Structure formats: structure tokens, C-alpha cells
Amino acid sequence: MKIQNGYMVPFGYGKYFRSDAIVGIEPIEQDRGIGRRTKVYVEGLMQPIVASRTGGIILRDILETDENTTSDFIASVQQTEMLRDIMESIVDIPPMLRSIINDQGGWDLYRLEEQMKEMLDETPAN
């Protein structure tokens, strides 16, 4: 993978940093939400920048994507982040509504949540 030197990467809400100055990307696990998706570590700064964009999108912007392996890697990261977002939404559904969804739509959200947890545990660290 090759970093696009000197390219400005948007972090959301008007925050931009040079791609070659970014040294790390970490998804926010707790207190994640709108405007708080990813911690981005930038060379020369003591604290990470909180980005409103997901790590996969930021990574896509940092890297040249003309190679298939890079595109596949980025797609995998994005899919994992989307699965994590869906699981976070399902966790917040109260039991009564889960029961209605199961009865009316045939979706067992408890089983679905467990499957997503298993898949995310098996996903290699990015």
C-alpha cells in the first residue's frame, strides 16, 4: 500500500490533515456516535483527533486504491464497520420491541446480535 503524499484527508466537520502525517487510526468503541467515529493519530500532535468519518473511509482516502488488494482490504474494513454500526443499533432495541419484531417479521434479534458478535470477534484487528 502506498500513501498519497501531501494529499489532504477530510476527517469531517471541516477538519483536514495531510495523509502522510497520519500515523494511526482507531475506531471509537465507547461513546461512539454522530461526530465521534474514529480517533486519528497525527504526527506532531500529542492527542488524537476525533473524526466524524469512519476509519475505513479515512483509510480509503489515505491510500492509493489502484491495486485490487488495497481495494479489497478497504472494502473489508468498511463492511466490518457497517456490521459494528448495525450491531450497536440492535443492542439498543428494548426486549418488548424485539419480541414484536420476532413475532411480526420473523427476525430473532438476539440470535442476529450473537452472530454479529462472533463475526466481529473473528475479524482480524485493523
State which percent range the strand residues make up: 15-25%
Estimate the helix proportion, in percent.
Answer: 40-55%
- Main beta sheet: strand number and arrangement? 3 strands, antiparallel
Total beta strands: 5
Low-confidence stretches: none
Number of separate structural domains = 1
Task: Provide a concise account of the structure shown.
With 126 residues, this protein is α+β, with helices and mostly antiparallel strands.
How would you sum up this structure, described in words?
With 126 residues, the chain is an alpha+beta fold. The protein has one domain. It has helices at residues 55-62, 68-91, 95-105, 109-122; strands at 8-12, 15-18, 22-27, 38-42, 49-51. A three-stranded antiparallel beta sheet has the order 3-4-5, with helices on one face. A two-stranded antiparallel sheet has the order 1-2. Helix 1 runs antiparallel to helix 2 and helix 2 packs antiparallel against helix 4 (109-122).
Keywords:
126 residues, three-stranded antiparallel β-sheet, two-stranded antiparallel sheet, elongated
